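PT: before anyone asks, these are the final sequences, not the draft ones from last week. 512 residues across everything. Please model them as a single complex and drop the result in this thread when it's through.
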Amino acid sequence: MNREPEAEPVIAVERLTKRFGDVTAVDDLSFFARRGEILGLLGPNGAGKTTTIQLLLGLTRPTSGRIEILGMDLLRHRREILQRVNFSSAYISLPFNLSVRENLDVFGRLYGVADRRRRISQLLELFEIPEVVDTVTGKLSSGQVTRVNLCKAFLNDPEVLFLDEPTASLDPDIAEKVRNALKRVQRERGVTMIYTSHNMREIELVCDRVIFLSHGRVVAEGTPREILERADSESLEKVFITIARGGRIED
Amino acid sequence: MWGRVGALLLRYLYLYRRSLARSMEIFFWPVMDLLVWGFVTVYFQSVAAPRAVLFLLGAVIFWDVFYRSQQAITLSLTEEIWVRNLLNVFIAPVRVGEVVLATCLLGVIRAVLSAAVLGVLAYVFYAFDLLLLGPALLPYFASLILFGWAVGMVTMAVILRFGHAAEALIWGTPFLLQPISAVFYPLAVLPPWLRSIARLLPSTHIFEGMRATLETGRPALAPLVPALGLNVVYLALAGGFFGWMMKRVREKGYLGRLAME
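LR: through. Structure below.
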């Protein structure tokens, strides 16, 4: 299933397994991501996506297997790796009682960002919300909150970015702007992104390659076009439904 | 209507059945209040009231120093859970020890500011001068702050492991220690078997020292020795417990679950 990377992988996961008691959330999972690639991590609820991301961020310790990010072993070099990666999720937030500037300044300090004021302005411009800089985060719309979270995720100019449903709470207009901003950063900075979403149309638009997970295992992997051809399907949504209902994609 | 009320009642009862911390809360506050004020009454029966009132004012301020120190650790991290910011903190390149240290320092700031305000108010309204404690004042405060850190770390470790169900411990743990710390009455008031336990707490030695200093007018520095020794032991144990619990939390995946639920 897994093809060898053509270039040195930025993320290399080898035989990763995570068991919680009798439940195997991630089962002998292996995959890689190249520099500057947007890799979609897809699958139905309970497929192991969230656990995989938590393992990749070092929030959860694997039962077995190995994770290498930016050429370093995650268990031994977690802090060095975290300095060069970041994460944004629709399910986490920044403190609502601080202003946008205060929040971003705090995280800028945590990541050791130089010239934080300029960096914060740049990122707010990138995501088209410069006007909210002095607004208390709790007073922002959900779309603005999501974009402020993305600003936080880009503060340290990450080489690897984990995005967990980044456009989940956005209207189609803002979602498209966010996707364009992400693609622009990918092109200009060569950022590797691991992207989860339940919006299959978005995955087709954004991701260079996708991995479908089911019961913690890779069940399909390739470019969106390759998967569509293999599944003889016209949309990733139909492939998703097939996999969620226990069907298989012929290799 | 009664059917819905009954269903809601059952839902809350299920919650208590599933959470020891919530169950404890039902009985905890009344029992602790009874113990504290019961001992205060015993004490008032045996001493002259004006002096006792002086001790009480000192006790209230000293207790607040310990309480603020403990709360700074537990409330700061718990608030990160409440506002769903915990994951942002733990995926930043920050050591867990650094996060704890930051909250410990916050505890110092909160404790010092609070003690300063209470000290001024006590002087203005009751002519109680906190500076009567002389050179013992700062080491007493430091000792209470250190003990607050140790209790705060243990409480926070339990919350990270057991999640929202254990949040009642933030406010409950200090009050669990209050009756046996001899805060508002001398150690001698406690039954002999409880005195032995009380002497294992640094706070007991500090409150005894505070009363001795106010009584004699001379700084009682001797209680600082056992208090410091016990603080060193408790801080080491609390740090070890926090580290061990964090390891368990990472193994079991509780951190991500707690931060994103």
